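Question (not urgent): is this output format expected?
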Amino acid sequence: MDILNFKEIDSTSVWARKNLKDLEDFKVISADVQTMGHGQFERKWYSTAQNGGNLYISIVLKPENIEHLNELTRYTSYIGAKTLEEYGVCPKFKFPNDILINGKKIAGILAESVFIGSEFKGVIVGIGINLNLNEEDVKNIDIPATSIFLETGKNVDKDSFLEKLISNFKKEYDDFLKNGLPENISEDLKVKPATI
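Got this back:
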């Protein structure tokens, strides 16, 4: 797995966008802390390295087939939820880009395509997942939030989680590029769309 890790950075996605031409397909940019991480509508993503840390990454993708690119956020949500299930929690999608547990946000995904003129140069998939946020941490977030630690009482090894996430992503990625989202996405998982 090709990972570039920063102790602290403004945003993994901003860095990836600035350096896109020098980054190869599937390069993962990771940070222990992001000072200016954001999600949809420029919402700030709270970041801390305390208690074992959380996942703040951007994946650089340079697919030749971009037919299903508009479904990439949902594909990543599906993979994120699938990985979370391996840790004994029951995630729900809040499409297009959030994953919830018991109505509280545990993950956010933001995919941004990069074009120069009309030429496609790549896509950057930003992923934030609350692994080890504690009770004090979630008070800093302006919406209901949770983490694997808060749901299970167990600390999560960040490197191990990242390895599983990327492995799961790659496993179905070629099929996704060819065929789009799995038709049985709801049946394939216990994950269901959130009703809120």
